[in-house]
Design goal:
Strand 6 and strand 7 form a beta hairpin. It contains five helices and seven strands, in the order αβββαβαβαββα. The termini are far apart.
């Protein structure tokens, strides 16, 4: 085999490997987000302690709408929308907001809650139990659970204003 032919075969082989890798990446990106498939399904049950040590069970909120808000202090969009979540928690008598922090320390979450005046229940998903149940892949993610206990809606990304979140809740 000549040197020239060997180089061409190498280039073709490398191009083939790149094409296969690109196809795999495109398939992964275009796959339906697994959490979206959970809409209209019964919300997975969970129980964790909040910042006051009170046991928070999703089943305790049956008959009420629940906003599960997955967030972290290292996520700028999460931090920005927490005041929006707080106002909604105060204003909406028909809806309970539960903040699910992803794997941060109790001290970090308590300090953040105190400095931002958060009064709605906050739980820490230290080992990813709830995150896995709900197949969360991005922060922030907000899940609306209807009074029937079924997932009504899922939103990935931050709500920029109270009206955006209110509209989203109203349409759910």
């Amino acid at each position: 085999m000549t040197e020239r032919l060997r180089k061409r075969l190498s280039i073709v082989l490398i191009a083939g490997v790149i094409a296969v890798l690109a196809a795999v990446v495109v398939r992964q990106i275009s796959t339906v987000h697994p959490a979206v498939a959970a809409v209209r399904k019964v919300a997975p049950a969970f129980d964790l302690k909040d910042m006051d040590g009170k046991e928070i069970r999703l089943s305790d909120y049956r008959g009420r709408r629940v906003v599960l808000h997955f967030w972290a202090t290292y996520c700028p969009p999460c931090v920005k929308e927490m005041p929006v979540m707080q106002r909604i928690a105060r204003q909406r008598d028909d809806t309970t907001v539960i903040g699910v922090n992803i794997g941060q320390s109790r001290g970090t979450v308590e300090a953040f809650a105190k400095s931002n005046g958060l009064t709605f229940p906050l739980v820490i998903d230290a080992v990813g139990k709830i995150t896995d149940l709900y197949r969360i892949q991005a922060l922030p993610t907000t899940i609306l659970i209807g009074s029937d206990g079924r997932v009504s809606k899922i939103a990935s990304g931050a709500f920029g204003s109270d009206s955006q979140l209110t509209d989203w809740l109203t349409q759910g």
